[in-house]
Amino acid sequence: MDILPFLIDFILHVDKHLADFVASYGTWVYALLFLIIFVETGVVVMPFLPGDSLLFVVGAMCGVGLMDYGLSVALLLAAAVLGNQSNYTIGRLLGPKVFQWEDSRWFNKRAFNQAHEFYERHGGVTIVIARFMPFVRTFAPFVAGVARMTRSKFTFYDVTGGSLWVGGIVTAGYFFGNVPWVKHNLEKIIWAMIVIPGLLVMFGAWKSRRAEAAAAASRA
To answer: Are 114 and 202 in contact (CB under 8 A)?
Structure first.
């Protein structure tokens, strides 16, 4: 199976794939979920994994007793925090030379630039806000490492953002994921989780570039 069609199908129908996995492999689902969240947040070349929708569906499955709520939140929070720490470390080791990289199959330069612009504008709070923004979520800790944010400061924002992201979305899925209307419109909700934050990031980046251009014109 081609990887791209499979990923798209997995993201849009994560509820069905996850339910099938639980039915076939039982508690191994926790290891799979840990790996997905860790890779999405910890490997800068994997920003397309289904973080938000996955957390929501996990909460819904906890709500009907197929998974344990406390264990799920604890493991996924650990994966999110450790993933960001890994990503930060990679960025810190690579340093500013990343700005010279060209767009490629393994490096989304546009996403990196958007995350960097967001970081320049909002500072450390970016690590918290970016948790709820696909693509930026993967690049924000990397950018913090490149910018040489201190480990202690980064860890504070990392744990805070991870707690709000994992705890908030899993809990939302727990209480609302099994509501008939939500189940019937889950694919649309997943699309909204992907598209709306992406549009907000692009608008913010456009606004930032426009402000910079206006400032440069006024100095000329």
So the answer is: yes
Q: Assess contact for 36 and 54: CB atoms under 8 A.
A: yes
Residue 95 and residue 216: Cα distance in Å, rounded? 27
Instruction: Output the CA–CA distances (angstroms, integers) from residue 132 to 52, 53, 164, in the order listed.
Output: 7, 11, 9
3-state secondary structure of 24: helix
Band of residue 72 on the pLDDT scale cut at 50, 70, 90: very high
**Inter-CA distances, 86 with 58, 91, 162, Å:** 24, 9, 14
Amino acid of residue 57 = V
Q: What is the 3-state secondary structure (H, E, C) of 74-138?
A: HHHHHHHHHHHHHHHHHHHHHHHHHHHCCCCCCCCHHHHHHHHHHHHHHCCHHHHHHHHCCCHHH
The model's pTM: 0.75
Sequence ranges of the domains in the chain: 3-215
CA 188 vs CA 94, 112, 191, 196: distances in Å: 38, 27, 5, 12
Cα distance between the two ends of the chain: 55
Token pair, residue 180, equals 């008939």
Give the CA-trace dihedral at 88, 92, 98, 99, to 10 degrees: 90
